């Protein structure tokens, strides 16, 4: 079965901008398709990547704030850390999909 962000029944597409199209979720991952009410589950291929990146946000922000006046820190943040985080977020978004829930 091909992984996609489309509902397997009606073809409704799971939105990238979840804020613009809020979906009521029962436990964070399960929800009903807004079009056909099929019970679906949200999954991603990069779950550990998302968890690790989320855990590193606070320490990285505190470190950057504390050492913000050092030029090498600014350079590393601008040309290394920021592009790496952008690539990681794109990888995570590309790896997400929905499928019919199978209990």
**How many H/I helices?**
2
Beta-strand portion reads 5-15%
Shape assignment: elongated
Give the topology string: H per helix, E per strand. EEHHE
Low-confidence region ranges: none
Class by SSE composition:
alpha+beta
Q: Give me the count of strands.
A: 3
Largest sheet: 3 strands, antiparallel
Describe this structure in words.
The chain is α+β, with helices and mostly antiparallel strands and 103 residues long. The protein is built from two helices and three strands. It has helices at residues 47-66, 71-94, and strands spanning 30-32, 39-44, 96-100. Strands 1-2-3 form a three-stranded antiparallel sheet. β1 and β2 (39-44) form a beta hairpin. α1 packs antiparallel against α2 (71-94). It is elongated and about 55 Å long. The chain starts with 29 loop residues before the first strand and ends with a strand. The mean pLDDT is 82.
Could you give the topology of this structure?
Elements (H helix, E strand, L loop, with lengths): L29 E3 L6 E6 L2 H20 L4 H24 L1 E5 L3
Short description, anyone?
With 103 residues, the chain is of the alpha+beta class. It has helices at residues 47-66, 71-94; strands at 30-32, 39-44, 96-100.
What structural keywords apply?
103 residues; alpha+beta; 3-stranded antiparallel β-sheet; elongated
């Amino acid at each position: 079965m091909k992984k996609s962000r489309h509902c397997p029944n009606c073809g409704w597409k799971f939105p990238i901008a979840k804020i613009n199209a809020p979906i009521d979720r029962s436990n964070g991952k399960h929800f009903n398709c807004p079009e056909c009410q099929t019970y679906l589950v949200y999954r991603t291929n990069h779950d550990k990547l998302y968890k690790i990146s989320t855990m590193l946000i606070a320490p990285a922000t505190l470190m950057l704030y504390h050492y913000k006046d050092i030029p090498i820190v600014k350079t590393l943040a601008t040309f290394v850390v920021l592009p790496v985080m952008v690539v990681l977020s794109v990888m995570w978004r590309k790896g997400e999909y929905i499928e019919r829930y199978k209990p």
